[in-house]
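re: ur question from yesterday

yeah so i grabbed the chain u mentioned. its 69 aa long if i counted rite. heres the sequnce exactly as i have it in my notes:
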Amino acid sequence: MERPLFRIVVSKFPAVNVYSYVVTRTTALGPVMVATYAALNPDWRVEVVDENNYRGPKNNLGLPDHEAL
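ran it thru and got these structure tokens back, copy pasting raw so excuse formatting
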């Protein structure tokens, strides 16, 4: 049986934002901390997707392709 996936998505900020420079180089620590704690359960797969510095597959609109993930 495949383990269930617990995915946390940090949604993309508007293009012009006070944090625009920082969010493209780092990720929010809150979601990472929650994912780290959830990963202690061996029955779950855990991942964090940060849409602000995402470099994975994209859909036809240039946004993260959550179906491919």
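noticed a couple things. The chain is about 20% helix and 15% strand. also Residues 5-50 form one domain.
anyway ttyl
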